[in-house]
Amino acid sequence: MGGEAAGERLAGRVVAITGAGRGIGRGYALAMAREGASVVVNDLGTDLEGGDRSEGPAGDVVDEILAAGGRAVANRADVSSEDGARSIVADACREFGRLDAMVNNAAIEFRGTLEKHSAQAFDRVLSVNVTGSFNCMRAAIPQMLEQGTGMIINTTSGAFWEGTEAVAAYSASKAGAFSLTLSGHSELASRGISCNCIAPGATRTRMVDAWISQLAANSDQPEEEIMSEWGIQTAENLAPLAVFLCSEAGRGISGNVFEVWGDRILRVAAPSRGESIAREGDTWTFETLAENLPGLTK
Fold this sequence. Notes:
The chain is α/β, with parallel strands linked by helices. It has a single domain (14-207, 233-271), classed as Rossmann fold. The chain is 45% helix and 14% strand. It is built from ten helices and eight strands. The protein has an eight-stranded mixed β-sheet, with helices on both faces. The longest helix has 29 residues, at 119-147. The model has no long low-confidence stretch (mean pLDDT 92).
């Protein structure tokens, strides 16, 4: 395992990456192309809330890959659409003949307290971050089953299990991506398709740039010092794990959620049942709960 030479670890493989025009997705795309993968670079080119589309980001990354001697094609479909997701797989098969890995990285967010979240904003975030991942998985599975092999990588966040404030829709969507990964593993691993999830720790992307700039302005510290003090990594720190999970060496790994933060990769355990209370008699009574529940929740 892991015997491939640097620059050849993904040779002959075809990888589709959503949200690959900037940030973490761009880091994945460039790293995988350097390792020999042919890359479908999907990106709508939107702002953080999913508006103001632009063709630039996906095309710029493709140009970088081609200039370095790699192989890539741009796809600007909306992953929240079933047709959009299917077009990503179709582009991979038309341009490169197969699809070995689907990396679901595209995400948007809405910042505001719960009472400032509208139902429309909540639905839009989930439609990209959860439904988009589902659509791309569902589009890729038939091709991967026909090939007899495939890799799926989803993206979650500590915002899910930490209960991060002011990003309720985003946090809920990342819980969905976590659960979708576990379900994907249960159904697909025995059929030759691995399904894992990456949880980026604090990473310098558009989602945290404004926060970094605000901290720097309020403290008169250089942004580099802010990043070091708060442990904010760059997108390049996440790419090696994504490359590994898409390689032959990582093919046997499935059903895992890995958090990447600085010099550590942590395996995040699925939620588990904790302590319990038991009742006497046929029904729960108010008195039984009053006597036992506070001790369970302290």
